[in-house]
Amino acid sequence: MKQAAFTIPHLRQRKGAGEPITMVTCYDYSFARIMDACDIDCILVGDSLGMVMQGQDSTLPVTVDDMIYHSKSVARGAPHPLLVVDMPFLSYQASVDHAVYNAGRLLKEGQAQAVKLEGGEEILPTIKKIVSIGIPVFGHIGLQPQSVHAMGGYKIQGKTKTEAKRLKDEALAIEDAGACCLVMEGMPAEVAQQISESLQIPTIGIGCGAHCDGQVLVIQDLLGMDSRFKPKFLRRYAELEGTIRDAVNQYAKDVRGHDFPSAEESFFLEKSEQIPSAKKKS
Fold this sequence. Notes:
The chain is α/β, with parallel strands linked by helices. The protein has 11 helices and 8 strands. It has 2 domains: about 230 residues, Phosphoenolpyruvate-binding domains (TIM Barrel, Alpha-Beta Barrel), CATH 3.20.20.60; about 30 residues, no CATH class. The longest helix has 17 residues.
């Protein structure tokens, strides 16, 4: 039986029922097609594609056009999960009007169903305006990769009482501004739990402990496709880097050893169409 699409109203229903929300970050059609057949509620097309797919040092170089390209690819492969797309750096910070235009592009051209913005008090007018024209918004607080330089690196946020209060105040303000969900990244589990319990909208955590209303991981990370990336919050459900490397090396060995392709993996003419072999000259 074909699964029903997961929608924005389902988010609050899940929180009310105490049923955790499952989300993965995915960037391409191939993985999206597989995710569509899995028990996944939401897919995030993250600006982390700058690092995972492009090999950048941060998310900062990613453009709106990059996000649209990847979002369209994911949308083709995964029609059932809710598709959320990051608004990249400088696509919403310059002005509210600029943010609305870019959010609209992500829905119109990228086929997104919601957009995600990093930030706190400074982006509340932007959230309100985007929501007012019918575009669902996910907030994002805590560790904010677009602010990596201001934060002095990828550091856990909310470790003091003052910082924890600031995060809670930001979360409540983002909810009041009309966001339908809040992503929280890189904060102590106790702080994330207090925020989750204080909100009516659901929270989705990464590196925030077990008491959020849902969790998100990058698909390449949970599949173990980069052995160098070993943050504390990451649980690997497979170790595909080694598996892929072994498979490709075996392919190369078979090609060099004239073992691939075999006769069973080749096409041949019918006997009536056989071409005579060229005879060597004496």
